[in-house]
From TrEMBL:
Belongs to the leucine-binding protein family. Gene3D superfamilies: 3.40.50.2300. This is Amino acid/amide ABC transporter substrate-binding protein (HAAT family). Residues 1-33 form the signal peptide. Pfam families: Peripla_BP_6. PROSITE patterns: PROKAR_LIPOPROTEIN. Residues 63-414 form the Leucine-binding protein domain. Keywords: Signal. PANTHER family: BLR6548 PROTEIN (PTHR47235). SUPFAM superfamilies: Periplasmic binding protein-like I (SSF53822). The keyword Signal applies. Residues 36-57 are annotated as: Disordered. It comes from Actinomadura hallensis. InterPro entries: Leu-bd, Peripla_BP_I. The lineage of its organism: Bacteria, Bacillati, Actinomycetota, Actinomycetes, Streptosporangiales.
Length: 435
């Protein structure tokens, strides 16, 4: 992508060390630009050098997107995200004429955090609803289950709501890309924080036994290599487990002075509650970002979560430092107008607003308003500023970088809200690029 941010160049699908043939990919790209459809199409408006590219789900006046979320089930707290997204698109449709004059229709499906259901809903959105793109598939398991299908059908799977590192390192799935900082980058931020604050930390870890949990844990292990920080015990849980009380009891006997909590909201809340009850164990509690919403902490009691630390990359709607921020004012005003009953203080609503704004900029800058054009745009971001992201956090991707956001800032829970601490940590600069 370049558009208003620079000169365009199509993403060629290559990363350092890949064995994929550049010649084959170049031929495929040229064929698409010269008229090869590369997938289903119901006709459209692509002309000139964009002629022949896929225009399913997009016209001169409309743009249809489909999102898959756990509106029910163990990760249902994330159901707040599409409310923020829809409020943004409704605002843009009614007051800005849509994206490039196209009114956005956002169709949301519930997979209950079940991968087979996610595949079913992806097929329904693509084949029956004929969406232009899958915008947000939430969760590592659900996205893993659907990305083969999306890439075989050559349907953009844009800004998936999961930080698994494979979205940015796999050369076989150029139509899928993440948005939020990947779990390895997040783990790097925690490692860097401990190197500065507790350089001889003994760490106990609770993690979800899937790609999500293992990705963050493995990233943390690699990031502390060469330091005096040691992991002294690990405990995993399954998403079907009723609780993590047994695992927490085992971890409390580890003599660790740091607890790394790698969980989704339901289990994050359980782990926080268990930690609060253990008077003989008082570790520094690091809570991963995906479970760091105040809605997760509130059931535990704010008095019981004081001093917990986490990381973030977008503005917290309850942080008073953003009270006069223009984007925060706009978000609160329009959420109230277009999503009545949605609480603007819930961070997942602000997340939805931020990722929708990111899609807006990415689509607006696409040289071709086609599926291929969106694919190329999301792979060629160049320091794109999104007003809801923290100052200093920008979106950047390229042929050798499939991770839009890799900078985060630590935060500590104090009183009834998170407070930013330290400075933004750009993991590209501290640890180098992921490969």
């Amino acid at each position: 992508m370049r558009g208003r941010w620079g000169s365009g160049r199509p993403w060629n699908g290559l990363r350092r060390g890949t064995a994929v043939s550049a010649a084959v990919l170049l031929a495929a790209t040229t064929a698409a630009a010269c008229g090869g459809r590369g997938g289903d199409d119901d006709g459209g408006t692509a002309t000139g050098e964009c002629e022949g590219q896929q225009t399913t789900g997009i016209t001169d006046s409309s743009l249809k997107l489909g999102g898959i979320y756990p509106l029910s089930g163990p990760a249902s707290a994330y159901g707040a995200i599409p409310k923020g997204i829809k409020a943004y698109f409704d605002y843009v449709n009614e007051e800005k004429g849509g994206i490039d004059g196209r009114k956005v229709e956002f169709i949301v499906r519930d997979d209950g955090y079940q991968p087979p259901k996610a595949v079913e809903e992806a097929r329904r959105l693509v084949e029956q609803e004929q969406v232009f793109a899958l915008f947000q598939t939430l969760g590592t398991p659900s996205t893993t289950a659907t990305w083969d299908y999306a890439n075989q059908r050559k349907v953009p799977q844009v800004f998936v709501a999961t930080g698994a590192s494979k979205w940015g390192t796999d050369d076989k799935h150029p139509w899928t890309i993440g948005w939020q900082p990947n779990y390895v980058s997040e783990a790097r931020v925690y490692a860097q924080y401990l190197k500065q604050e507790k350089p001889k930390a003994k760490v106990a870890v609770l993690f979800q036994n899937d790609d999500f949990g293992k990705d963050l844990l493995d990233g943390f292990k690699k990031a502390i290599e060469g330091s005096e920080i040691k992991i002294v015990q690990e405990e995993s849980y399954e998403v079907t487990d009723p609780s993590v009380d047994a695992q927490m009891s085992d971890l409390a006997r580890s003599d660790a002075d740091v607890f790394l909590n790698v969980t989704t909201p339901k289990f994050g809340s359980q782990a926080l509650a268990a930690d609060a009850k253990m008077t003989d164990w008082n570790p520094l509690h690091i809570l991963n970002n995906v479970a760091a919403s105040p809605t997760v902490l509130q059931p535990v009691g704010f008095d019981n979560v004081q001093g917990v630390v986490s990381s973030t990359y977008y503005k917290d709607p309850v942080d008073p430092q953003w009270e006069d921020d223009a984007e925060m004012k706009l978000y609160k005003e329009k959420l109230k107008q277009y999503a009545p009953g949605a609480d603007p203080s819930i961070a997942y609503h602000a997340f939805g607003w931020a990722v929708a704004s990111s899609f807006h900029k990415t689509m607006e800058a696409a040289k071709c308003k086609t599926r291929e054009g969106l694919r190329d745009s999301m792979r060629n971001l160049n320091d794109v500023e999104v007003p809801m992201l923290l100052p200093g956090v920008k979106m950047t991707t390229g042929p050798d970088d499939g991770f839009p956001i890799e900078a985060m800032q630590m935060m500590k829970f104090e009183g009834e809200r998170w407070s930013l601490i330290g400075e933004v940590i750009d993991t590209r600069e501290v640890f180098g690029p992921l490969d």
